[in-house]
Amino acid sequence: MHIQDLTFARRFDGISGSAIREIFKMIAKPGMISFAGGNPSPAALPNDELAPIARSVLENDGKRILQYGATEGYPPFLESLRAYIQSSLGVSPEAILPVTGSTQAMDLLCKALIDPGDTILVEDPSFLGNLQCMRLYQANLVPVKSDAQGLDLEDLEEKMKRFHPKMLYVIPTFQNPTGKTLPLERRKPIAELAEKYGVVVAEDDPYRDLRYDGTALPTIQSMDTSGFVVYLGSFSKVISPGMRVGYIAGNSGIIRKCTLGKQSSDLHTANLTQAIVDAYLRNDQLIPHIRTICLGYAEQMHAMLDDLRSFPEGTRFTVPEGGLFIWVELPEGIDTKPLLEKAVERHVAYVPGTHFYALGGHENTLRLNFSNASIPQIHEGMDVLRSLFQETLAL
Amino acid sequence: MHIQDLTFARRFDGISGSAIREIFKMIAKPGMISFAGGNPSPAALPNDELAPIARSVLENDGKRILQYGATEGYPPFLESLRAYIQSSLGVSPEAILPVTGSTQAMDLLCKALIDPGDTILVEDPSFLGNLQCMRLYQANLVPVKSDAQGLDLEDLEEKMKRFHPKMLYVIPTFQNPTGKTLPLERRKPIAELAEKYGVVVAEDDPYRDLRYDGTALPTIQSMDTSGFVVYLGSFSKVISPGMRVGYIAGNSGIIRKCTLGKQSSDLHTANLTQAIVDAYLRNDQLIPHIRTICLGYAEQMHAMLDDLRSFPEGTRFTVPEGGLFIWVELPEGIDTKPLLEKAVERHVAYVPGTHFYALGGHENTLRLNFSNASIPQIHEGMDVLRSLFQETLAL
Question: B234 contacts in A (CB within 8 Å)?
Fold first, then answer.
């Protein structure tokens, strides 16, 4: 047989790769102003602090760090992580599993729960990386209506009744891609609906600590008494995405299945990266670091919001209180997907909004990231986009 | 609904967790002599060398290491890894993907290739961790007969014809659990059968560099001209398992699907651990390190083999040329599974052989690891086992 006749598993039918990562290759040329991706600012990456930590954890506990570890996690990190969750979220979850970022958390939850054809309810739009993960488990993705504040509870209950979903995937705080935050009064009802209909809620909350305006809200999980709400946390946005450290926290039965799945997925998260985050937490370096990076991010966000106010008439955009993204809806008729190529020619990149919709459409939308460009770059890049969209509308 | 009524995905039916990892919890008490597991010797873990490296890679390339990386790997590591593979295996594979150990390599290959019900041919016995991984993909595991040298080629072809398998999983060098090495004359025919029947061969080769006697053999992949043989490499046994760095190398179409799968599994392997292995390779530290650790492992293996020669009459065992394991077959009628509890009471642990057989049975076998105990501990532990088995046979 010829290797080109090899057939792959059916889960890959129709899967071509994350649009963001393909866009990233396209824009990996010097001089590009990127509003695509969700990269932290280079200034926000604490390499000066982590370099000596990396050395000292290996000096102090090297034999244990370099040996096989438990799937359940590096013991000192489990301790500091539990304390961090308790103080940051005000809850003490039944079980916690360190993972290699919330991408793996999603993969393990799907592995634990999803048979081909099972329904997962998703926000509309939602994070495209995790939509792809769900598609690889051959899930049936059903979008739930959103309004200006996020998930529409009536439509959510209606779809829980109608589709008997296995899971609801929600990013309640500074959502990716919209930047919206689900208000307090919608949080508890989601936990209640989860219990009523037996639906696991995957509460993906990587942006929570990046708040620039307003006040923090309790997590959906903190209002859950049933065990159906699972919390996905990540240190990617507040320490380093390249370290790949995050966690799942929640009901011990669900975490146990995720642990079994992880045993066969990668055995355990690297002890070294767990030990580094552990030391960063124990040294009380995280909170001051977050405070510092939020100052910069707030300026970047407000600069981009200011620029958006002079975009072509009919342009609508979200005004987030934190996170990394602003969502833009251009006047009808404009299609941001073919326009991306022209933007890239002018050295500016964004992600066309259609990629974030489980069922496509919404061609006049785009996602803008403000964390990975300086203020002058933001102004320069936004000028380019404003002109490009104006020209296109004038055609 | 009550959380206890939550049903998990069907892939978990009958999956209870790896026997080795459960045994590990049982034996995690001080004073235990462990012949279970496949842990490198603590002395073989280069913490003194890696501590300054961890610091210096973050000092030299910290902003890139802490940022999101490409699923395809950390660019400097891709370079040094390709050079290492070329010099160590004498081949230059079409494509290479860094992964978090060969456990993830297996997971990604299954994700790429296996639909529920697809057949995977496995050695009998084989590595139980990866058998569990395949079961989670709901594969139909069909064991192929082995003789004293490894896979029986006649039975292999017979089963390729009969079961139309998607994959053959083979550990050709110092096999886990038997320590056997597949002779040269059986390697090329496996590559030829793979092409003839269109079966992907997963050649899992983590022990290759741990050779104490005899001479190195070419890999199956080096004799493959079709692209059907995929090579799984790992730095777990020669640098550190806790770092979680390995790779898959082979046909670019297969690696491309694994890369897509990895994108949704964990986005990318931690840049820091890739950068550390990269520096270790570039500093030419790996080859002298392997030479040193092989000296110690050779002594440990020969000490254990010597002790086995005075085991009860009728005991058979393999005499490996390298690796970490010796396989023992006790006289018929003895069952090593219930005996493990008694051994642990006497502070000695091993893995009952039955766990390594896809279809169970073979209750009179066990796997012994010699790398994680000192020479005096080996003699002490083997004395305990000898007495225990003698007593049991005398009953």
Answer: none
User: Architecture of B3-46+287-394 per CATH?
Assistant: Alpha-Beta Complex (3.90)
Q: What is the pLDDT of residues B40-62, one digit of tens each?
A: 999 999 999 999 999 999 999 99
- The encoded tokens of residue A270 equal 């690297």
Q: Tell me, yes or no, if B10 comes closer than 8 A to chain A by beta carbon.
A: yes
Chain segment A8-41, per-residue pLDDT in tens? 999 999 887 666 666 777 777 788 999 998 999 9
- Yes or no, beta carbons of A62 and B47 under 8 Å apart: yes
Note the pTM of the prediction, 2 decimals.
0.97
- B320-346 per-residue burial string, b: 16 or more CB within 10 A, e: under 16: bbbbbbbbbbbeeebebeebbeebbee
Q: Where are the domains of chain B?
A: 3-46+287-394, 47-285
- Measured between beta carbons, the chain B residues lying within 8 angstroms of A66 are 45-47, 50, 239-243
Interchain contact B54–A (C-beta under 8 A): yes
The domain defined by B47-285 folds into Aspartate Aminotransferase; domain 2 (3.40.640)
Could you tell me which residues come within 8 angstroms of residue B22 by beta carbon, excluding any fewer than 6 positions away?
Answer: none
pLDDT tens string A298-316: 999 999 999 999 999 999 9
d(CA A79, CA A81): 5
Q: Is any Cβ of chain B less than 8 angstroms from the Cβ of A13?
A: no
Q: What is the pLDDT of residues A267-299, one digit of tens each?
A: 999 999 999 999 999 999 999 999 999 999 999
**Is some CB atom of chain B closer than 8 A to the CB atom of A47?**
yes
A320-356 pLDDT, tens digit per residue, is 999 999 999 999 999 999 999 999 999 999 999 999 9
Q: Suggest the residue from A1, A4, A6, A372 to mutate for an interface test with chain B (most B CBs closer than 10 A).
A: A6
Task: Give phi and psi for B99, each to the nearest 5.
Answer: -135, 175
Q: What is the CATH number that goes with domain A67-284?
A: 3.40.640.10
Q: How many helices (H) and strands (E) does chain B have?
A: 12, 15
